[in-house]
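Run Calcium-dependent phosphoinositide phospholipase C through structure prediction, thanks.
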Amino acid sequence: MRVLGRMAALVGAAAMLVAIPGNARAASPKFSETTTIGTHNAYEKGKYTYWAQALDSGASLLELDVYADSVSRRWRVSHDKPLANDNNCEYADEPSELYSKDRNQDLGSCLDNMAAWNQLHPDHAPIVVKVEMKAGFNNDAGLGPDEFDTLVSKKLGSSVYKPSDLLGGSYSSLDAAAKANAWPTRDALKGKFVFELIPGTVEESNPLDSYWTDEEYGDHLRDLYAAGRIGEAQAFPAVLGAANGDPRTSRYDASIRPWFVFFDGDAATYVNSGYDTSFYSTNHYILIMTDAYGVSPAISSTNPTDAEVAARLALLAKDHASIITSDWSAKSASVLGSVATRG
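Sure, done. The structure for Calcium-dependent phosphoinositide phospholipase C is below.
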């Protein structure tokens, strides 16, 4: 009975968080002040037939796995095929072509789909595009941070919310801007994509590679800022892995620590281990909690009830998550599009 009571209370809390009484219009919260839901590996055809359907889903985060293919010098999108594409992205760059063209395309086509979809939905809620660089960048093959930025900028242009937008000409680092809560409101981010970069599983297991995506892109941001070119950067690197306290201090050189304001780790590790996650909301950092289903009491990783999702959202909002993710692609847009007040 105690568990059921707690569940009911959390569901009620979730409803209260998003309700607006009568005709009152609540002020739009900042991006850093809400908790939303994302879909793990949304590029997989088993989750959505087309990438545009993933964009339709209402989810606030969609994930792409990307390989830097040094043989063809192309960005491949696949879970485990570094030299091929295996995904739901189409060869389509016009709205009329979506939901009908050949799939299994490269990253450029995934971005083309996003640009076409954006024309149909110019006021969509902000969407974080989480890019796992499976084997890391390959600068020697012309597939490094500069080339990634160029591709994203070419395909999506002003629809990307960039690090320079957070700096706003007023702050000398992303850390300083985040601590000042310089994030825009969710309304101001309508029609925008926000790119998050994380190291990949192949990269992490490669004994010959100790210079991972997060550090490489952190160096990239630092150097662009020093050169007066920070406006070229298109993504936010994330500190990967749940930790207690500030994980930047033990992982990065002091010169790049201030360029990390995204953090990404396992929800159960954060919550069940009793970590003090208030650190993230106090500093207005973006905290992505993955595998949200696994927090005790565990729920389905694929198709929990709507009430279970609402309760999990409320619980992890209280634990200071910005976005919670799982494989909940079967849920409706009204569920995946839920927005709660953070912390």
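The chain is about 30% helix and 15% strand.
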